[in-house]
Amino acid sequence: MTPEGVLDIGKTAIQTILLVAGPMLGLSMIVGLIISAFQAMTQINEATLTFLPKIITIFIVMLVAFPWLLDILLGFMTGIWGNIPAYIR
Question: In whole angstroms, how far apart are CA 26 and each of 17, 29, 85?
Fold first, then answer.
């Protein structure tokens, strides 16, 4: 396997990770910012207040986007497994 092939697999893996984790991380960040703004306005200094809304948000995003996430991951793994003979050369 050439170094270019390894870099291509690594680049595709990182892109897949970002594509799959992006929606969950993005919405979790937005919920965290909203909760932080609420805490700043009401002067509630509770560090654990943001955990439950973030976890619920991530769970809902996973439920809604699961078919899409599964399609992305299966496409990546099918590509990797299908190209194993080419990687061996």
Answer: 13, 5, 37
Say which amino acid occupies 81: W
Mean pLDDT by 10 residues, the chain (89 residues): 88 95 94 91 84 92 94 95 86
Burial class (CB in 10 A: 0-12, 13-18, 19+), 46: exposed
Q: Is the whole model's pTM more than 0.85, yes or no?
A: no
**16, 72 Cβ separation under 8 angstroms:** yes
**CA-angle at 57, arms to 11 and 14, nearest 5°:** 5
